Each structure stands twice: as structure tokens, then as C-alpha cells.
Amino acid sequence: MTRYGSTRHGVSRRSLIESAFFLSALSVGGGLASPALARGMGDFRSLRLVNNRTGESIDCVYYADGLYIDEALSAFDFILRDWREEQSIRMDRSVIDILASVQSRLDSREPFEIVSGYRTPITNATLRRRSRGVAKKSYHTKGMAVDIAMKTRSVRQIAHAGLSLGRGGVGRYSRAQFVHLDSGPERTWGR
User: Fold this and answer.
1) If DSSP codes are grouped into helix, strand and coil, which group holds residue 183?
2) Which residues make beta-bridge pairs with 87?
3) How far apart are CA 47 and CA 73, in angstroms?
4) Which segments of 13-141 does DSSP mark as H helices, in order?
5) Do 78 and 105 touch, CB atoms closer than 8 A?
6) By the 8 A CB rule, do 120 and 141 touch?
7) Position 170 confidence tier, pLDDT thresholds 50, 70, 90
8) Nearest residue to 138 via CA among 150, 123, 148, 149
9) How confident is the model at residue 42 (pLDDT cuts 50, 70, 90)?
10) What is the C-alpha separation between 54 and 138, in angstroms, rounded?
């Protein structure tokens, strides 16, 4: 777990933002991390996220030709941080893969809007007092869950794409207009 401004590896917040910007520029501008070039290299995975609460966004390749790209994963850890407590955690790579797979199945260039990523135990307890829908031992506190939404896709469409993977948890929150995806055991809930 890290405080805002530094990471578990001693990298500054500025470095992470610069890395995320660099990786985003590469993925859009045709550099090494570009999806078009990565296609020629073999297997690649990319993900587009926007955090409307912080104004941050990222669009980059995080896995290419059998290897995860550490700088991209650190940038995802940062954008998925608990913005209330300004703390981040190393997000489970399986949940990042699940997000990328769901995004790919939805066949859209629109980024996922982050509703909730990592939550500190303090944030989780606060949210739990406000809502019955927050689990006491939430996968969010382990860096294994992300709640997402899209303007151009319904909760049903996103959840269906998640369920089609046959792994992890998929929760539909139709009233609040978001879908929960996690890398825990396969299960589903909500309507």
C-alpha cells in the first residue's frame, strides 16, 4: 500500500503520471506500445480507463508478446487508487486482464469509467455504513475488484460481457448504473 505521491517502488507520483502519459502517447501515436504494432509482435492486451473524480485517464498496452509492461501496470495501480485516502495498492493482474477482456468483447473505443477501484479498509468501512451493498471483506480492499460504467453500453451489456468470460465475480448494480468485476471465485449477483 502506498501514499499519494510515492509508490511501493519509490517512484514519484509525477513519474507515474509521466509514464502513463508516455504510454498513452505511444499507444495513440504508433510507438512501441501501440496496439497496431503490438498486433505484429504477437499477443497484446490494452485497456482504456477514465477516473472522472480525479480527471485522469489512460489508454495503453500493458501486455505484449508474453510480458507485462511494468510502467503501464504501475499507471493502472495509480489511476485505480483510493482517491479518498490517496493510497494505492498493486492491483491483481487478473482483474486488469478481466477488464481488458470485457472491454474487448464490448467492441468499443470508449474507456471504462471507474466508479471504484482499490479501497482502503477505512474507505470500505465508511461506504459500508452508508450502503448494504458493500461487503465487509470486499475484494476492493485486496486490489482484486473494480466497479465500472460506460455511457454507450448498458449495465446488462457490460455484465453479459463479464459473464461470458466464465471467471471472477460479476455484480449488476442497475439502479446505480455500474458493474462490479473481480478476480475472485466465479459468481454473479444483481439484476
Assistant:
1) coil
2) 3, 82
3) 10
4) 13-29, 35-41, 70-79, 93-106, 121-130
5) no
6) yes
7) very high
8) 123
9) low
10) 23
In the block, residue with C-alpha cell 477514465: 50
Partners of 36 in the β-ladder? none
Rounded to two decimals, what is the model's pTM? Answer: 0.79
Q: What is the pLDDT of residue 133?
A: 78
Q: How large is the average pLDDT for residues 37-42?
A: 49
Q: Which residues contact 160 (CB under 8 A, 6 or more apart)?
A: none
Answer yes or no: are the C-beta atoms of 80 and 116 closer than 8 Å. no
Cell of 174: 442497475
Which residue's C-alpha cell is 477501484?
Answer: 117
**What is residue 144's three-state secondary structure?**
coil
SS3 (DSSP) at 172: strand
Place of cell 466464465: 166
Stated as kind and residue range, the H or E segment containing 54 is none
DSSP label of 111: P
Residue 30 pLDDT: 34
Q: At 62, which amino acid appears? A: Y
C-alpha distance across the termini of the chain, in Å: 34
Helix-, strand-, coil-residue percentages of the chain, each rounded to 5: 35, 25, 35
**CB neighbourhood size of 174 (10 A):** 13
What phi-psi label fits residue 84: left (phi over 0), alpha (psi between -120 and 50 degrees) or beta? alpha
Q: Pull the grid cell for residue 109.
A: 473505443
